[in-house]
Design brief:
By secondary structure, the protein is of the alpha+beta class. Helices cover about 35% and strands about 25% of the residues. The protein has one domain. It is globular. The protein starts with a helix and ends in a 6-residue tail after the last strand.
Length: about 80
C-alpha cells in the first residue's frame, strides 16, 4: 500500500516547478535548491502547499517537507492534515 508521503512525492515530481531538485530521505520529500532569498523560499513553500491542498484536500496525515539550501541550514515545514479523528 502506497503511503501518503509517497503520493505527495509523486505529485511533486509531476507538478512542482522545482521537481528536478526533489529527492527523498527516509520516505519524505527533500528539495535541494541553490541559496536564494527569503521570497524565493516562501514562493517554493507556497507552491508546494498549494499543490498538496489542491490534490489532497482531505488529508488524514501530515507531511514534512525539507528544503536544503547550499551553504545554509536545512529548513522544514509541515503540511498539516485536514481530517481529525
Amino acid at each position: 500500500m502506497e503511503t501518503f508521503a509517497a503520493k505527495v512525492i509523486e505529485l511533486l515530481r509531476e507538478k512542482c516547478s522545482h521537481a528536478d531538485q526533489l529527492s527523498t530521505f527516509m520516505g519524505q520529500p527533500v528539495f535541494s535548491v541553490p541559496a536564494k532569498g527569503v521570497s524565493e523560499l516562501a514562493a517554493l513553500q507556497t507552491e508546494i502547499k498549494d499543490l498538496i491542498d489542491t490534490h489532497f484536500p482531505d488529508r488524514e496525515e501530515d507531511v514534512m517537507i525539507t528544503i536544503r539550501r547550499e551553504g545554509m541550514e536545512d529548513s522544514g515545514f509541515r503540511v498539516w492534515k485536514t481530517k481529525h479523528s
